[in-house]
Known about the structure:
By secondary structure, the chain is of the alpha/beta class. The longest helix has 22 residues, at 574-595. The termini are far apart.
Amino acid sequence: MKNPQEILKSVFGYDTFRPLQAEIIQNVLNKKDTLVIMPTGGGKSICYQIPALIFDGLTIVISPLISLMKDQVEQMKALGVPAIFLNSTLSPQEYFENVELVRQNKIKLLYLAPEALMTESVQSILQTQKIDCLTIDEAHCISEWGHDFRPEYRQILGVKNKFPKAVCIALTATATPRVREDIKKSLNLNSANEFLASFDRKNLKLQVVTKDNPSFQAVKFLEKHKDQSGIIYCFSRKQVEELTAILEANEFSVKPYHAGLSAEERTQNQEDFIRDNVQIIVATIAFGMGIDKPNVRFVLHFDLPKNIEGYYQEIGRGGRDGLKSDCLLLYSYGDVRKLKYFIDQKEPSERQIAEEHLQKMVSFAESGVCRRIPLMEYFGENYESENCGMCDNCLETDEGLEDFTVAAQKFFSCVKRTGEIFGAKHIAQVLRGSSAKNILKFDHQELSTYGIGVEFSEKQWLDFVNQFLKKGLILKDTDYGRLKLTEKSFLVLKGKEKFLGKLLESQKEKRVTQELELDYDTELFEQLRRKRKNLADGENVPPYVIFSDKALVEMATYFPQSKESMLAINGVGDAKLEKYGLKFLNEIFAYCQAKGIAEKSKNKITYKVSRGSSKVKRHFVVGEKFNAGKSVSELKKEFGVQESTIFSHLQKYLLDGNKIRKELGLEVIKLSKVPREKQIEALNLFNELGHELLRPIYEAMNEEISYEELKILRMYFLIRTAKF
């Protein structure tokens, strides 16, 4: 076959090309050098695999990792494409056999590491062949400005010049404009056609949360992804080992991966993950570059990545099948300091690049706008939408936010009084009345703001700081973490603007965006997954080589019961239909017979709609449970929050116009530890000054009653006067 569209369907099982694929393939077929910048999971491989099947001669693929070659070759063989690799993992006999296949012109795709390409033996073999295409994967490795520079990539140009009739295609997922120019210069691709796909991976949900109790946060996150494949990235080997032990103790299916393990153990752990023998891999950044596992449903960054390129490439390992994948980054300024320490050990020229990279990463983590805006801008792309609907900043609403204006005023006042030259931790310590050496050294115990913030823990104050940063209420320099006020913070200080935020209590999932998903039969899906796993184990290949999760989801949605219907499933081409189709059709047919299910047309798509906004609001649930007889103490334990939060929920319930059990008044006043005369004074002030803000009452009572006590008395006032 010489038609790319026919090959796409018959070999790969896809009906349509993804954006830019058809144009790139035609450019390569026209023997025009090509630079492809396409996000991970965007379909780069097909851009050289289809031309390889059309060209008469051989296509060489330069790839940096052995695991990547092995993975690609397995997938090609499953599709009936003659592909091999030459590297050190082969036995002498296997190596000889593969060389003979090349000499006999029986191979269309030959995968090589750059080091192997430079050897005389390999080059002598290639000189006897007609080389039609030289493919350079992970081309950013050739640039010193890239995040993964490899000096051996610089030698590829010499080999490229030996095959002047071969078209060159260089591909990467992570290249800034500067790196792209460096790639073209280093490979002499100045006249190459450049194809730049959007860096937006729409199916990745991006989230950054304050790192508080990271092990606990990781466990809670993983509980939402039960029996799903995922990757957790840690900064150090030690952290990998510690977190793996914690997750094993919590009965998660998990293996570690880092350079401290033996090569055999690393390979085995990676294979177990690829083949779904283990669900979770905890790894340093040494892991993943050669992974093409499509059903990774989550990527958790336990520590801050060193740069945006690394972060983007690592989250890009999620959702390569096009289905949703959750990407969570735990962020703390402690991680920034740790990375800066290692940067300071570098040579001056390397230090400058590393500092620039880190500063961009910090800006991304602390951004209050749509996550995709700074991410896309970093790679030279403008993101037009103001709300992507798939990141924490875009999904955040005022729902569940409380008025913490007074807390913000205290914090900003303290920043100002300390000269705007100290970091968040120092300000939090002043507010909490700490006797730390640094506080006493600068006489900050004498400030009027000293000790006025004891109602919040240090962690809660530091979480507020992240909220202030996201809203542009303060600025922080990346060198020392010093905080400075902005025009917005002065508006809050003067009482002209409010600060609505959340108190750090427990890690709760934010409102889920409205999204469309295929409404598939989960029981059949699991049955097909087991079938796939058994076949994969029998053939000694990863499960996704048989069929992707996306293919199984479609099978469990449309219940295909004929070869024609099976060919309509995403990723099912002629080769896979012949090899596996009947086995899966038998499973589906038997299941449908037992359940009385008829086949569905793929043209009539069935969706389920998940709307976060349709959820019953928490304060309504709390109010209803209280009216049903639960006490405040019982509700506090049930929801795992502070009493003040339960009172806030009950107050919202009242303000919504709902009636509430009158016994609440008695329960509330019993909780107050304020003398009776002070209670009466506060209640009279609520009547005189209003109940909306607590600060006027606090100041009118000479700051003798805490805010927690005032919340109790305000609740009692609302119930007694029915002022709502």
